[in-house]
Each structure stands twice: as C-alpha cells, then as structure tokens.
Amino acid sequence: MIQKGYGCAFGGGTIINAIAAWKGCAFATEMKTYAQVIVSEPGNIGPVVSGRNLNDSGMNPYLMERCVELVFEKMDCRKSARVLTKSVIPAAGGLKSSSAAANSCVLAALDALGYLDEIGVGRSIDPLDVVQWGVAAAKDAKVTITGAFDDACASFFGGVALTDNRKMELISRKTFDYDVLILNPNQRAHSADANVSRSVLLKDLVEIAFDLAKDEQYEKAMKLNGLLYCGALGFDPEPALCAMELGKEFGIVSGLSGTGPSFITLFPLGKTPDEINRLTQLKQDVRSKWISLYPDSRIFDTKTCNGGAVSESLIFSKKMRAEQKDLIDWV
C-alpha cells in the first residue's frame, strides 16, 4: 500500500550567526518549503529512499533523503520512499533553505507514517526531538558547520529563536513582527564553505552581539552581527548601510543573513495610515537602491512569521489529501 505525507516549514533570516561562538539567533519568514513523502514496499534490494527538488533538479537530494531515512529509523519503518520538495527560498543564500528543507521533509515523513498529530509538548513526540532529527540529517549531509540549530528552531517554531548550538539548547523563543525586504544577489554561498577561521577571530565581538539578542535588543544585535560577518566573510556591507541610511527616520536595521550573500532589512509595522504610506515608500526606495547596486539580483518582499511548522503542515496535509494532489502537480 502506498502512503503519502506532507510537510511545510519556514525560511528565515539571521540575527546572530553561530559559526564564531556556537551561539545563534534567527527568525522565521513567511517564505516556505513544502515536502511530500511517498512510502512504498521495499523492492528486492531492500528499502531505498530517493529524493528530488522540484525547483532545481540538479541539486543534491541527500539532505532530503537522509531526513526521511532518520525518521524511518526512529519509527522502525523498513519501507522505501520517494521525497519531493518545492520552495520559493533560494538555495545557498543565507535564508535558511536547508533548515526549511530538513524540517519539511521530517514532518512529511512523520505524516506519511501517521505521526504528524503526535508532535507536541506532552504528546508522544517532543517537538525538539523532531528539530534535532533534521539537524542530524543536515550534519550528515554536510550542509552546515554548527548544525544550524538556531535556524532549525526558527524554521520549526516560528518567531525568533535564541540557541546554544553546541548544547542543542533552545534558550528562548519570542514573537517577532516586522516587514522584511531581502536582497538575494546572483551568487551562492554554501554555509559549509564559509571561512570559519576568520569568523572565529571575531568570537568575542559576536558574543557581545549575542548578549544583546539575549536581552531582546535584536535590532542592535543584528546590525553588529552583520557588520562583523561582512568583514570576516568578505562581503561589501553597502546593501545594509544604504538601507539603514535611507531608513534612519524609522531606525531601520539591516544585515548580512547567514553566511551570505543575502542581506535582510527589517521594517517596523506602521501604526497609522501616514506611517504605513511612508514605510511603503521607504521600502520602494531601498529596493531601487539595491537594484542599482546589484542589477541581476532578486528581491523578496515578505514578513516575519510567528506560526509553527507543525500546524502549517497539518493544514497543508489536509488540503493536499482533500484535493488528492501530489506536490509535483501543486502550484
């Protein structure tokens, strides 16, 4: 019998990159990755898991496959599976594409086996265990240096997550409400290829930024982190600086996300019609400036997200089952 499962998780942005000090802080955005797992009986050679990214057929599917394999190992399932993903999140852009892929694939595998609604505090599956399975798969796939537990928690729980990645500890999770503009230059920067030795030189300063985030001074922390890692990783900070200069009236904050190359700018939510109009114009001004600097770049206009991946996956699964659709046919 063929069993199908569906999952969904969020992309995000960086407040503190964990490479230097193994302590990180990240937030979720409304950009999503969707996954489908199709379970079947094993063939003559035994259980096999195969994967495919529907946005990029040339992308290495091992992370997706390893997520499903780990879930099957945990649940003592000895069947074969096919895993598919579809996403609007650019790969290798510092926008948490790997965490979103891992979380969505783990959730889709659990859904296929009938365990999705068993995830929760006090239920049979601890949510942090689910996050850690995705992190373990990311380490096995060598797409991360620290395990990106901060990114994974933000992608899974929504809001802003503060973590100790060495201890795999979620220190805090708070709501986080901003409009978000993302500059994604036409290049890739894989996290696992980042210049760790130079980043570690800035550990003491990154820890100052982390302490700011711990005190919920997220804007200051993000600004400091972005400038530090631009220096360590060789990125021109101009996209962040020009955004902050244009938005100084509102105290706009902008910084490098992950190990780049993307930059993220946070805009406060307007409280009056006049303020909303001025922020809308400001966003357009930042967009125009970025395009003049990077004509071949992509710019994404989104929001932070405070919802969780489990509830989003339950909604997505119900919809796909009701419509009897596969991910490959779904837009």
Walkthrough of the structure:
- The chain has about 325 residues and is an alpha+beta fold.
- It has 2 domains: about 5-175 and about 305-325, Ribosomal Protein S5, domain 2 (2-Layer Sandwich), CATH 3.30.230.10; about 180-305, GHMP kinase, C-terminal domain (Alpha-Beta Plaits), CATH 3.30.70.
- It has 10 helices and 10 strands.
- The protein has helices spanning about 60-75, 95-110, 125-140, 150-155, 195-200, 205-215, 220-235, 240-245, 275-295, 310-325; strands spanning about 5-15, 25-40, 50-55, 80-85, 160-165, 170-175, 180-185, 255, 265, 300-305.
- The strands form 2 sheets. Strands 1, 2, 3, 4, 5 and 6 form a 6-stranded mixed β-sheet that branches.
- The protein is globular, with a radius of gyration of 20 Å.
